[in-house]
Write a structure and sequence with these properties.
Blueprint (H helix, E strand, L loop, with lengths): L2 H18 L2 H11 L3 H10 L6 H7 L4 H13 L3 E6 L2 E9 L1 H11 L7 H4 L3 H19 L19
Antiparallel strand pairs: 1-2
Helix pairs in contact: 3-5, 4-5
């Protein structure tokens, strides 16, 4: 097994561990918020940074029309607002309202205990696992969905 194969296997195992143990939490969050989980996914991504609707679609792995419908719904509920992007007045940026931030706090407050396989690790093992996960977390936690494309024609000319 190559290093890449082993990394892929570890990744699949970690993903399976999370996916197989989150159903109870997802149901509790849906019950607490009254929102479909698709909207919860979008709110949690917007809690990291404001985004365009296109970026929301990419971050939530949904198509653009579905993202528009979801953002419209969240806007109707008073949880997000669309505002003109100050760096590109032709674009709108979606961000959380105060009510949206309160909803994130409500989501974060839902109990989400570790599965037994993790809870059974001793403190040293948990600290080692956390250190390994933290090494890659910064890279994948807040990816730049669409980095701005430099627009040289907007830059001021340098006079020599």
């Amino acid at each position: 097994m190559s290093r890449s194969d082993l990394a892929d296997e570890v990744w699949r195992t970690m993903a399976s561990l999370v996916h197989d143990n989150r159903d109870r939490w997802k149901r509790a969050v849906i019950e607490q918020t009254g929102l479909p989980f698709s909207r919860i996914r979008i709110l949690t991504r917007l809690s990291r940074q404001p985004m365009s609707v296109k970026q929301v679609a990419q971050a939530a792995t949904i198509d653009a029309p579905a993202a528009t419908v979801a953002v419209n719904d969240l806007e109707d509920r008073g949880l997000v607002v669309r505002e003109t992007d100050p760096t590109n007045r032709r674009c709108k940026v979606v961000s959380l309202t105060d009510a949206g931030r309160e909803m994130i706090h409500k989501i974060d407050a839902v109990d989400d205990p570790a599965p037994n396989v993790l809870a059974s690790l001793d403190e040293v093992e948990l600290k080692e696992l956390k250190a390994i996960i933290d090494q890659g977390r910064a890279e994948i936690e807040f990816p730049v969905v669409n980095p701005p494309i430099p627009q040289p024609w907007l830059l001021s000319r340098r006079e020599d």
